[in-house]
Design goal:
heterodimer, A: about 90 residues, mainly alpha, Non-ribosomal Peptide Synthetase Peptidyl Carrier Protein, Chain A, B: about 425 residues, alpha/beta, about 30% helix, globular
């Protein structure tokens, strides 16, 4: 089960995906969605998503790491490992 | 398309017919609303502050779009597009629906060869400026991965091409304020050469920005009548003092006559001929007495197999600059001779401003509507015709055009000496 922080990250990633990828709604984005096959994230959309993630969380996502992200869960897991937990958070 | 040589008349099956129209302008978000407002004498010109929120006011005259093009697209698609591409997508979709054709990739999914040609003036200028602002304020990491595709002049054409799956070709003529007309001329050539069955052709522009206003103002090309926007764009009037910049897009669906007939399409008008010339005189001034423009008009008539007396309506480029309007009037006299006295000349930039790269296409759509409705639209701000201009300019009231065979010409000129004339004939 995702932690409460992971749940928050997931919700924000869903919002970013819906704002970045054509014809994808927040409701369609599930943790196990494949970015390419299920959501139609092409290489340009992935770059845009990475740029939005870098902007939102002020983190750097190197290209080799970005290229390895193929599911929504992998994005959330990656963020969970690089984004500092909020002060007083459960993690 | 003719470049001055008399062309053989086209074989009928490969004549180009106009089956779909779309436009979004300062008068309306589509062709019917624009046309209706034009006939009503509505004015799209406003005086607005275009300065940054935290800076001193920069008040300019402009004819901003009546409908935000982003409102017609999904938020994600709108966010992926420069405003110029948003206009192009909205107008192309309208034109395709008007033609009774699908406005998605199923258009090219059948046997038809589909081509998209969208002329651009400034291209993705607003996006260039926006991305540069991000770079300067936040560094390279703030620049979007989409920055380059949306900056390019072919961005709007590429987006329309993607929308319909135009695998037979996507093109972007860039000839300043003649770009939209050149797109239509290129469409005619492709259809005649049997290289396309359906062409979505037009032009788009979104450049209402202080940088562009300032640049044109430094050229002394803009009207200074900020206090009376309704009287600012006044083509052919002795009081004209420059143009008013507009924005928007115009699109036509053109088909070979055979393709249109095979699917039982309604034909708005026939695109009978096109003429292209270049002044090769000056980067921003027309040739003396409009010689280049006259050559383009003559070439278009030759190409269409029309005599001057066949033409009863001209939608003039007429931007409302003192020199440009005079040269165009002289050019029309050269091309039409005495027959010009029976030609109803409309200058529609009085209503929706000068839309630069979109102008030729918006005015092509307007010319087709004039033929179809047999009505020459008004030049809404005309008090009287400049005595130096020997034209029968349609004033504040629309003028009926005669019944029977009827032809009309739309002229376009652009910085760089570009001249394009399009000749349309009424559908039988």
């Amino acid at each position: 089960m995702p932690t409460a922080d992971d749940r928050e990250l997931f919700d924000e990633v869903r919002e970013l995906l819906a704002a970045t990828v054509e014809d994808v709604s927040v409701e369609e984005v599930a943790l196990d969605c494949d970015l390419k096959d299920d959501l139609g994230v092409d290489s340009l959309a992935l770059l845009e998503l990475v740029a939005a993630i870098e902007d939102r969380w002020q983190v750097q996502v190197p290209m080799d790491e970005a290229a390895r992200l193929s599911t929504v869960r992998e994005i959330v897991d990656h963020l969970s490992s690089v984004v500092p937990a909020p002060a007083g958070g459960a993690a | 398309m003719s470049r001055g040589n008399r062309a053989a008349p086209p074989r009928d099956g490969r004549a180009a017919v106009v089956t779909g129209l779309g436009m979004t302008t300062a008068l309306g978000g589509d062709a019917p609303s624009t046309w209706s407002a034009l006939l009503d004498g509505a004015c799209g010109v406003r005086s607005r502050d275009y300065g940054p929120p935290d800076g001193p006011p920069q008040v300019y005259l402009a004819a901003p779009a009546a409908v935000d093009p982003a409102s017609g697209l999904s938020p994600v698609k709108a966010g992926h597009c420069d405003r110029s591409a948003q206009f192009a997508l909205v107008a192309a979709r309208e034109a395709l629906r008007d033609a009774g054709l699908p406005d998605d990739r199923s258009l090219a999914g059948g046997a038809s060869r589909v081509v998209v040609i969208v002329g651009a003036g400034l291209g993705g200028l607003l996006s260039i400026l926006d991305q540069n602002r991000r770079l300067e304020t936040g560094g390279p990491g703030r620049v979007s991965p989409r920055a380059v595709p949306v900056m390019l002049p072919n961005h709007a054409a590429a987006e329309v091409g993607l929308m319909v799956g135009a695998t037979a070709g996507v093109h972007t003529p860039v000839s300043a304020c003649a770009s939209g007309a050149e797109a239509v001329a290129q469409a005619l050539a492709l259809i005649r050469e049997d290289r396309a069955d359906v062409v979505v052709a037009g032009g788009t522009e979104a450049g209402l920005h202080p940088l562009v206003f300032a640049g044109f103002a430094r050229l002394r090309a803009l009207s200074q009548r900020c206090g009376e926007p309704e009287r600012a764009s006044r083509p052919f009037d002795p009081g004209r003092d420059g143009f008013v910049m507009g924005e928007g897009a115009g699109m036509l669906v053109l088909e070979s006559a055979g393709h249109a007939a095979a699917r039982g399409a309604r034909v708005h008008a026939r695109l009978s001929g096109a003429g292209i010339s270049n002044d090769s005189h000056h980067v921003a001034q027309p040739a003396p007495e409009g010689a280049g423009c006259a050559a383009a008009v003559t070439a278009a008539l030759d190409d269409a197999g029309l005599l001057p007396e066949d033409v009863r309506h001209v939608n003039a480029h007429a931007t409302s600059t003192p020199v440009g309007d005079l040269c165009e009037a002289q050019a029309l006299r050269t091309a039409f001779g005495g027959a010009l006295d029976d030609v109803a000349v409309s200058a529609t930039k009085a209503a929706f401003g000068h839309t630069l790269g979109a102008a030729g296409a918006i005015e092509a759509v307007t010319t087709v509507l004039a033929l179809r409705e047999r009505t020459a639209p008004p030049t809404r701000s005309l008090d009287r015709v400049d005595p130096a201009i020997e034209l029968n300019v349609v004033g504040r009231v629309p003028e009926p055009l005669p019944a029977g065979p009827l032809a009309a010409v739309s002229t376009s000129m652009g910085f760089g000496g570009h001249n394009v004339a399009l000749a349309f004939t009424a559908a039988p």
